[in-house]
């Protein structure tokens, strides 16, 4: 059973489009993951610096164009919560990146099979 050239070209274009979309999504996901990791490192550094302050020290948190005074322990708690959320986000983005990489690999393999003449998708 043979597939006509037209059908083969159409199928090839669809798979190629899917591979390109996966590649774009991979780049976007890597950028998002790097941004979350950078944000997490900043929060960890800030938490470390706040931990070195005396217990009764007040720190300031930026709110819009203003700053509010908070006890260091409250700010440390907020940073710990933020770090946990960011760790979850990074893990989720890692899973998404893995899925997209597998999807792209499958698309490339399918394109290679079609070009060799073994269309059996």
What is the strand and helix layout of this fold?
Layout: H1 5-51, E1 58-63, E2 66-71, H2 72-116
Antiparallel strand pairs: 1-2
Helix pairs in contact: 1-2
Task: Give a structural overview.
This protein has 121 residues and is mostly helical. The protein has 2 helices and 2 strands. It has helices spanning 5-51, 72-116, and strands at residues 58-63, 66-71. It has a two-stranded antiparallel sheet with strand order 1-2. β1 (58-63) and β2 form a beta hairpin. α1 runs antiparallel to α2. The chain is rod-shaped, with a radius of gyration of 24 Å. The two termini are 14 Å apart. The relative contact order is 0.16.
Show unreliable segments: none
Largest sheet: 2 strands, antiparallel
How far apart the termini lie comes to 14 Å
Percent of residues in beta strands: 5-15%
Helix content: over 70%
Helix and strand run:
HEEH
Order of strands across the biggest sheet? Answer: 1-2
Mean pLDDT: 88
Label the overall shape. rod-shaped
Give Rg in angstroms: 24 Å
Number of helices: 2
Brief descriptors of the model:
121 residues, mainly alpha, two-stranded antiparallel ribbon, 2 helices, rod-shaped
């Amino acid at each position: 059973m043979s597939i006509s050239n037209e059908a083969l070209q159409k199928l090839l274009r669809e798979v190629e489009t899917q591979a390109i979309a996966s590649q774009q999504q991979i780049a976007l996901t890597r950028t998002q993951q790097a941004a979350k990791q950078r944000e997490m490192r900043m929060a960890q550094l800030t938490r470390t610096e706040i931990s070195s302050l005396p217990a009764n020290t007040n720190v300031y948190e930026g709110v819009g164009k203003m700053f509010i005074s908070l006890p260091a322990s409250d700010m440390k708690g907020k940073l710990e919560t933020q770090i946990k959320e960011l760790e979850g986000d990074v893990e989720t983005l890692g899973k998404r990146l893995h899925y997209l990489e597998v999807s792209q690999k499958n698309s490339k393999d399918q394109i290679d099979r079609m070009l060799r003449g073994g269309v059996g998708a």
